[in-house]
Prior knowledge:
Elements: E1 3-6, E2 12-15, E3 21-24, E4 30-33, E5 39-42, E6 48-51, E7 57-60, E8 66-69, E9 75-78, E10 84-87, E11 93-96, E12 102-105, E13 111-114, E14 120-123, E15 129-132, E16 138-141, E17 147-150, E18 156-159, E19 165-168, E20 174-177, E21 183-186, E22 192-195
Antiparallel strand pairs: 1-2, 2-3, 3-4, 4-5, 5-6, 6-7, 7-8, 8-9, 9-10, 10-11, 11-12, 12-13, 13-14, 14-15, 15-16, 16-17, 17-18, 18-19, 19-20, 20-21, 21-22
Amino acid sequence: xxxxxxxxxxxxxxxxxxxxxxxxxxxxxxxxxxxxxxxxxxxxxxxxxxxxxxxxxxxxxxxxxxxxxxxxxxxxxxxxxxxxxxxxxxxxxxxxxxxxxxxxxxxxxxxxxxxxxxxxxxxxxxxxxxxxxxxxxxxxxxxxxxxxxxxxxxxxxxxxxxxxxxxxxxxxxxxxxxxxxxxxxxxxxxxxxxxxxx
Length: 198
């Protein structure tokens, strides 16, 4: 049998034999709960939410920002400005910005990004990655110190983990510089030069 009450301040409530019930505050806030440990609420400021006995929940604040989670520990959120994201129990996640930018990351420490200006990139758990900038330049890098880069004009350069490097100009010129001191150079007209470093 349900038991109902009304307080002097105008708040009201109901309690049921199975443990469920409801409450309405004088300020307009409300609560409900069930016999299994779940419930809902609405606060006077307009925020609202729900929760379950298994630990899952959802909440939306008065400004329209929301977040939720499930029983396994995975979460998601969305802001009133349109940005959103997810967080998984394994450590991975995603992000989407209000400006259209986005990103992802995995449980191993790798990830990727795409910015609103058109730039993008990736990274891995070992310290390597790639990038592409909005101006058209791009490259890659590794934890061992090796890298490659091409600028917006088409000039490129690279180096390996041993300290050997090379470059190529957009005009057709190119060169190498090696860790042992040797080097080579070719200009755009086909003239070449080399040095054994001795």
